[in-house]
Amino acid sequence: MLRQVYKISTRFTRKKEKLKQIPSLLQRISVLLEEGYTFSDSIHMLLPYHAENVEFWQKVIQEKMRNGENVVQIFKSFSIPNHYLISIQIADANGELAKTLKMIAYQMDFQEKIRKKLSKLLVYPIILLFFLVSIFVAFRTYFMPNIKQIVDSRSQSEKSNFTFPNIILYFPDLIILSISLVIILFFLIFFIIKKQSIQHQMKILLSIPVVNYFFKLQLTSRFSRLVGSLLLGGFSLQQTLEILKGQQLNGYLRHIAVHIESKIIYGDPLSNAVHYSSFFFPKFEEFIKHGEQSGYLGRELMIYSDLLDERLHSIVKTGLSFIQPLFFVIIALSIIAAYISILLPMYNIIEII
């Protein structure tokens, strides 16, 4: 009993210790930094608006600053994903923290809106689907046995066959079971891939159709943004790759940096190194080549990253627009199955009469 009370109290405490509206917090920090406030002042000024347990967070941040931890470690305590933390680490190195926080705030806000929109889209169809399942269960349990009994009692010569209507009444169950199996299989594959080394993970992800498209898109966008940001910050390409090799927040980017550096060492330009690599989005090397010729490689890489992000956002929005109609098609098929399962026994009764 005491253990359960402790678990509940711990869960409640953790909930209170979570920061609220992190995208908004990052956006406001970026505005304050642009206006000349220090990072420490910005954090302490905004904490009361984004944390219930303000004293807890003030102690955490003060302790981290006292121990000499950097901006990345502080943001890591906010539960910000690692692929954003690496951008913060790079921005802290080249003095573009305010601009990077604004970009991350936009990305996180977009993801949060997509999650909310997805939940709103799915709530009604899922409730309706489970309602249909309950009706089908009632049909199988009460309606169909009674109809079968009536038909059998009227038809003395041979017993009626209700196999097909009974199968149809299991249609929604099969749909829910199929969706559940797909979700379980997805998480199982994800868990197995995560257990592999970075090199094997990339090899597997790049070999799966559709998945490899989005994987390359994400990798190219992040690599392009980080390299472009460092080049704009005054770092050479060699220094940029050394920084990406040294970071521990994204194993994929570290592996790519090692691979690209091994080609650049022998005098190949970045465009050639990218061209002979299988990690990137198609025609990425052409964009790099144009940047190398114009002398604005860093800026053009940032633009290319923005273009890829826009493409990804467009694909996600388009995908969301198909989810609800797909569920309604499944529900419509379930309703048709229900009508067929009711009408077939009724036709049997009419033939007997």
Condensed summary:
The chain has 353 residues and is mainly alpha-helical. Helix content is 82%, strand content 0%.
Please describe what this structure looks like.
The protein folds into 2 domains: 15-107, Up-down Bundle (Receptor-associated Protein); 110-154 and 164-353, Type II secretion system (T2SS), domain F (Receptor-associated Protein, Up-down Bundle). It is built from 16 helices and no strands. The chain has helices at residues 2-17, 22-34, 39-50, 54-66, 71-76, 82-94, 97-154, 163-168, 171-194, 198-207, 211-232, 237-246, 251-264, 270-275, 284-294, 297-352. α6 packs antiparallel against α7 (97-154). The longest helix has 58 residues, at 97-154. It starts with a helix and ends with a helix.
